[in-house]
């Protein structure tokens, strides 16, 4: 009977369904000398758990408290380079006006401006279409709610007519 119980516990253990008490029973069984021959291959597993529980790490862990400031100085230097990159072009000339660009650059600017305006108007049309769909969706939901009221009325009527 005990052997059947141990086999059931092993099956539960393999399916990860055992409780701590059941696992303790298995450890006690496999730590004893009278283990069934067909269960001998489980014995090293449970003995390992018992032995590993007693192991301790005895070496000292060195803590590196010396921090290098190299990374901090690299980040400061990177920020300084970026700031100089932004400031140097604007110090000498200042911002250009449209007249200071060539005719080709002015033409490209105007074409880009027209394309962005067209994109904006199409985007606004799309947004208004989505708003229309949202309104239609709200109306549909209101209709469904009213239909459910009619369904409730129908159920009540059927109950009254049956009695």
Question: What is this structure, in a nutshell?
Answer:
The protein contains five helices and no strands. By secondary structure, it is mostly helical.
Describe this structure in words.
About 75% of the residues lie in helices and about 0% in strands. The protein is an all-alpha fold and about 160 residues long. Among the domains are: about 1-55, no CATH class; about 105-150. Helix 1 (about 1-15) crosses helix 2 and helix 2 (about 20-30) packs across helix 3. The protein is flat and about 100 Å long. The mean pLDDT is about 80.
Structural class: mainly alpha
- How many DSSP helices? 5
* Count of β-strands: 0
The helix content is over 70%
**Tell me about the biggest sheet?**
none
Assembly type of the chains comes to single chain
What portion of the residues fall into strands of 2 or more residues? Answer: under 5%
Q: What would the principal axes of the Cα set say about the shape?
A: flat
Radius of gyration: 40 Å
The secondary-structure element order is HHHHH
Average predicted confidence as pLDDT: 81
**Low-pLDDT segments, ≥5 res:** none
End-to-end separation in angstroms reads 62 Å
